Here is the input.
Amino acid sequence: MNGVDLRLLIEGDKPQWDIFVEQYSALIYSVIRKILLNYLKNASDWDLNEIFQEVFVRLIKDDHYLLRTYDPAKSSLSTWLTIVTRSTAIDFLRKSPPQHESIENREIAAPNDENNTSLPLTIPKHLLTGRQKLVLELLFEKDLDVAQAAQIVGVDAQTIRSTKHKALEVLRRYFSKER
Here is the structure.
């Protein structure tokens, strides 16, 4: 484990914690930065620092419960920390209000418009759930496939398909009533 004694770390040994932070901060920081750059158009240093702190909070929360779950037989500490960091960043993105242009304000091409002009699409704020908005954004704005979206959201591909289907049903019902 490159100089980190996990047993001492879990027991709260300050020198071990300092070594751990020094050795793995750059890894954690780079994973967060990559996720923010990929999924948040205008991420700030504040976002990055919040997630960075949250990773360490998760590691020590509930008497180091998460650290206790680490099994060196299954993966290296670096790999495990990458997964923990990725999950923390994705949870942060799910919880935080979008810092980028939302799908409610996007213009989309009318389906039967031969000239391909755009119409503003106004979706009431509480019509879709946060997950439904995120799934539609990943699939339609980010142009990701279902497997990629499932990995980002941390669910099965079938859950992405189901969420997309339900969101589109809600939108169809809403917009058919508007006519």
Residues 14-39 form the longest helix (26 residues). The helical segments are 6-10, 14-39, 45-69, 77-95, 130-141, 146-153, 157-178.
